[in-house]
Each structure stands twice: as structure tokens, then as C-alpha cells.
Write a structure and sequence with these properties.
The chain has helices spanning 2-52, 57-65, 68-89. With 104 residues, the protein is an all-alpha fold.
Amino acid sequence: MPFLIQAFFAALATLLPSLVSKVLVGLGFGYVTYELGSFGIDYLFNLIVANSSTLPVEVLAVFNYAKLDEALGFMMGAYAAALTIRGLTSAGSVTKMKMGAPNA
């Protein structure tokens, strides 16, 4: 039994630097992607709001009837979620790490 515990900690010590670096890189890419995506989505939303005031009342009524505002909200939210997931997995998945024999 002590041999199994010792082998477990030896394997953990071998994987720990790689695991920590991949997690930190993944979090960094995820944060940057989320911030840039959030900035882009906010800019797009403000652009739509600013330009919608110049549309005729009839067009705005049709957009309201078609629930275009909700559809755009769903699309922007899904895009923000996709950017966040893509950013978190851009550095490589932690589950795809290969465990090899340590170099002697």
C-alpha cells in the first residue's frame, strides 16, 4: 500500500508543472477572449441602439412584432458564451494531456 501512495505522488509531481501551466494559460486566453468579445458585443449593441432611432416608426413596429430585439439578444448571448468556451479551450484541453515516462 505505501508503494501505491508513493507512486501516486511521484506521478503527480511529474504532471503538476505541466498541469499548472496549462490551466494558467487556458485561463489567460479565456479572460482575454472574454474581454475582447464583451467589448465587441457591447460596441455592436450600442451601434444598433444608436442607429435604430433613425428608422421609421413602421419599421420599428414590424421589428417589435417580430421580436427582433429578443432574437438579437439571444444571438449575442450565444456568441459571448461561444467566445468564452473557445477561449478557455484554446490552449488545449487539460484532459488531453498525455502521461509519459519521465526523462531520466
